[in-house]
Amino acid sequence: MIDEASCYSNESKYSINTHRHLKHTQFEKSSTMKHCFLFVALVFLGCASCDTTANPESKKTPKLFEGDMALTPEQLNMLFSKTRNGVKDTRLRWPGAKVYFWFDSRIPENHRNLVINALVHIQTYTCVRFYQGANPNNEYILVTNNNAGCYSYIGYLRTAGQQLNLGPGCMYRGIIIHEFLHALGFYHEQSTYDRDTYVTINWKNIQSGYEYAFDKYTNQQVNNFGVPYDYASIMHYGPYAFSSNGKPTITAKLSGGDQMGQREGLTYSDATKINRMYNC
Ligand SMILES: [Zn+2]
Questions:
Q1: Which residues pair with 69 in a beta bridge?
Q2: What is the mean pLDDT of the chain?
Q3: pLDDT, tens digit (0-9, with 9 covering 90-100), for 47-56
Q4: Is residue 267 a contact partner of residue 256, using CB atoms and an 8 Å limit?
Q5: Predicted local distance difference test score (pLDDT) of residue 82
Q6: Active site annotation includes 211
Q7: What was the pLDDT predicted at 217?
């Protein structure tokens, strides 16, 4: 099991001012950006069938891929067989860009508010909408806080309670956004097929046994949605992720690498990819 919190230990060091960053990326000048409502579209559906008393400790912690992604057997097969698409698979997208979630009863009010704040941030810049409860098919994300790090499954799994865990050290807006982007259907930025043009993976500095966390996917598996590589993506690892010796595991080849690992908020690229994935 990987202590995901350690993967984020450099986040404050590499965090950036969100407003400055958005300005820098001309977020507000985009003619394609939807003018989303700022209200909290968290509709309480009165989900009678939701498991409000779920005991997260009783759940078997899934084997994590790249530190914080829980993959279904089908997704694991997809990645290793290289015969099927990853996030290109439209079945992994939440229908109508409507994402349903529910809090495990153990999550305290202040942490729920942090999660909601993070979801409002996503809603502000994308067409995705979050609803507290279950959809008509009783499908939803179950937000838990067991002591096993920060992780999420990839995309929409059509299950009653696909787990998204926010354990100790995970209750920060950027980390919450990161995990929910996994749940929307995104892998890590530096895993994409053209990443070697932009970063060098320093294999000798990676903790033994965690080299797999730096695997990359083919363009048959992941889709960049026409968006250039983004060092500042909230889905990018920090430069010291899984370092065994305090030296960087990821080095940027071009300018902008100082923004790797930021966990303040979505970049323009992140939001664009979400909106293109969800056709809005
Ligand atoms: Zn992740």
A1: 65, 152
A2: 77
A3: 222 222 233 2
A4: no
A5: 35
A6: no
A7: 87
pLDDT tens digit string along 185-220?
999 999 998 999 999 999 999 999 999 889 888 887
Q: Closest by alpha carbon to 270, among 210, 165, 182, 151?
A: 182
Is-contact 224 192, C-beta < 8 A?
yes
Angle of CA points 230, 124, 134, to nearest 5°: 105
CA of 48 to the centre of ligand 1 (A): 31
Residue corresponding to tokens 């529910």: 102
Distance 109 CA to ligand 1 centre (A): 24
Task: For 10-46, write each residue's pLDDT tens digit.
Answer: 333 222 223 223 322 333 333 333 322 222 332 222 2
Burial of residue 199 (number of CB atoms within 10 Å: 0-12, 13-18, 19+): buried
Phi, psi of 106 (to 5 degrees): -80, -10
What is the whole-number distance in angstroms between the Cα of residue 235 and the centre of ligand 1?
6
What single letter denotes the amino acid at residue 123? Answer: Q
pLDDT of 73: 63
Catalytic residue among 179, 189, 211, 264: 179
